Amino acid sequence: MRSIRPLVGRRIATAEFRNLRVLRGGNPDHMAARLAGRRIASVKRYGKFIVATLDDGAFLMIHLGMTGKLLLGGAPGKHTHAILTFDRGMLLYDDSRQFGCIEFHEEFPKRVARLGPEPLEVSYEDFAQAMSRRKTTVKALLLNQTFLRGVGNIYADEALFRAGIHPQALACHIKKDRVRKLYDAVRQVLSEAIEAGGSSISDYVDAEGRSGWFQFSHRVYGRTGEPCPVCGTPIRRVVVTQRSSHFCPVCQRRPGGLRNTRTS
DNA sequence: ATCGGTACCTGCACGC
DNA sequence: TGCGTGCAGGTACCGA
Predict the structure, then answer these.
(1) Per the count of CB atoms within 10 A, which of A55, A177, A185, A249 is most buried?
(2) What is the largest CA-CA distance in chain A?
(3) Closest residue (CA to C1') to nucleotide B1 in the complex
(4) Of the candidates A17, A96, A74, A86, which has an alpha carbon nearest to the alpha carbon of residue A210?
(5) What is the DSSP letter of A223?
């Protein structure tokens, strides 16, 4: 984000789209024609979405999925799906797994409008009330972008660890003091991660090709079998709603009445 | 309305 | 060296 800010105020000379899949049904010729000559009026992050507003009021929406990258300059590669050239410089959209997308919208994109609140902006009262109404596991709820925007698998695990909550605890059963801890932990983890430039698990880089540093602060994510940094108990991995969850079985006690568990 | 399961796609680490 | 398997950050969509 901080690396693509410099594009604000620049004029798009040409747009080229090489992969229809990441356009999610958008017409590449129409998009290219609509983008050419437009200036980027602003760029804003909404959870995991990036929305650029154009000078004519239209929007370019980008989601990086799991492997997406926005690169300022450099040579297009095998997985470069979009190339925007500017009056000065160039932006490449690169995504090997193609789970991300780049879309053009005349109106503010509905998917973004439907997102839940920003964790750093939501009040504790709203957060706690929303939690108390959900019967799903807290892990699934944290990953649900209509509940809270921007929390992914890594940061969900890290926040649950810091709050001392088992990933399979039911959201509505979590005690008030723990909910408060979770609220604080989510905000803390996200702001630390943003500050550190993100988590580079395999090949994540920002627009200047820099990797993040937050992976060195992961206390449980990807540390199956390693000692818990608090009590030394080996970190465990379970699958919750098809996603791996890492936790300390002592610091994050299993509540009763859980759904079936697979540990490794 | 809400929930869980599945599909989408490529790359990598691993064991054989 | 090469092949098969399982795993990976995310969301949309389906049926229950």
Answers:
(1) A185
(2) 61
(3) A134
(4) A74
(5) -
